[in-house]
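[step 3/7] fold_predict: job queued, chain A
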Amino acid sequence: MRKSLSRNPNMLRTMIGIGMVLILVLAYAVYSNTVDSEYYGYSTTNEPILLQMEEEVEGEAKWRTTSEGALTWINVTVSGVSEGNTIRVEALGTEWYHSPLLGAPDADNFNCGEWSKVSESCILASAHEVQVEYGTMTIRGLVSLELPIDGLGYLQSEDSDSAEAAALDLITESWDTVSWRVSVLDDGVIVSSQGINLTLEVVTHEIISVSEFKLDPIQESVYSFATLVGCFSLLLALPLMVYYSAMYKAKRDERIRAEAPEPEQ
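[step 4/7] structure written:
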C-alpha cells in the first residue's frame, strides 16, 4: 500500500478530495434541512375516552352510545360471552376499518396503511361482525387513516401559519358525530345481557401545537461523519485485505523455498 501511494501520490490526494466533497455535501444537506425546512410537525391529543353505553332494551345484549370528535381508534371489549356467539359493531353515519391484525401481538405497529394504500386485510364498512372464540373479545378498528395514530404527524407547507391552518383543516374535516351500536347474537338472535360486560373506547384528536421540523446540526454532523468514516473504511478494507494476503502468501512461499533441501548433484 505504501509503495502504491509512493508511486502514485495522486491517489492520496484524490481520496482526500473525495472525502472533503462528501463532507461539504452532507454539511449542506444538514444545513438546508435545519435552517430552511418546508416540513412542519403537529401534535394532537391521543388519549382514549371511555363512552357510556346504554341498553336499547333492558335485558338484551344490545347497547348504543354516541361519540363526537375526530376519531382514529375504536376499541370494543366484550366479556362474559359464550363461544360461538357473534359480536356486531355498527356505526351509523360513517364507515370504519377493521382487521384481525389491528392490535395483534404478532403485528406490531399495524395500522391498515401501507404507504399510500390500504392493506387488503382491512375492510371498510359501517358494520363489522366477529365470532367469539373465547370468553373475552376485543374488536379494534380505525375510523380515519389520515389522522396521526400516535398523536404526531407531519405536513409540508410554505410557512408556520399555513401549516397550522392545514393541520386544523385536517382535524375539522375528520370531526364527526357517530352513533355506535354493539350487539351480541346467537344464530342471528340477540342474547340476554345477563353476565355480559361491555366497554367501548374511542381515541379523539385535537391540535396541541404546530412547529417547524428541524434537525439537530451537531447530532446530524456526528452521524454524517461516522457514515463517511464507515464508507471509507469499507472501501479500504477489501484492498488492504487483498494486499496483506498477497504479502503473507509471498513471504510464505519464499520461506518454503528457502527451507526446501537443494537437489543432489
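[step 5/7] annotate
Residues 217-259 form the longest helix (43 residues).
Helices lie at 2-7, 9-35, 160-174, 217-259.
exit 0
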